[in-house]
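Supplementary notes for students who missed Thursday's class. We covered one full example, reproduced here. Read the sequence, then the structure, then the short commentary at the end.
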Amino acid sequence: MKKILVLLVMTLAVFSSCKKDDFMDRFVPEVLYYEKDKVENADFVSTTLAAGITEWNIKCRVSAPNKLKEIKMYKTEKGKSEELVETYTDFQLTPTVYHVNYVLTDITAETVIRIDAADMKDHHTVRSFTVKVTP
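Structure (token representation):
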């Protein structure tokens, strides 16, 4: 009986020392662009402006089950280098979902917006949106 008890205690010690997987570690931030009031198409990643239109409202929903840490928005105009446009870090009111709403102005050439979202566990998701211009 004593041997069984010792074996049971040793087995429990071995299993309790194994690394426990946190189920939430499997989820990374999600970035979804949209045009109207909400996300209607997860594959919406580009638009073409009509001739004479020079502004576009970049809208995207960024979510992270492990709470958002930081969202960075970069802009690259055709033929120019990438620049940091905006950094968002205040997520106190909605720590898991944030709606980016940024008006891009003076668009004269194809422009790529890149969102880099990070959560509290330092998981990153990067997703781009392309604004094309009609000549």
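Commentary. The first helix runs from residue 2 to 17. The CA atoms of residues 117 and 125 lie 5 Å apart. If anything here is unclear, bring it to office hours.
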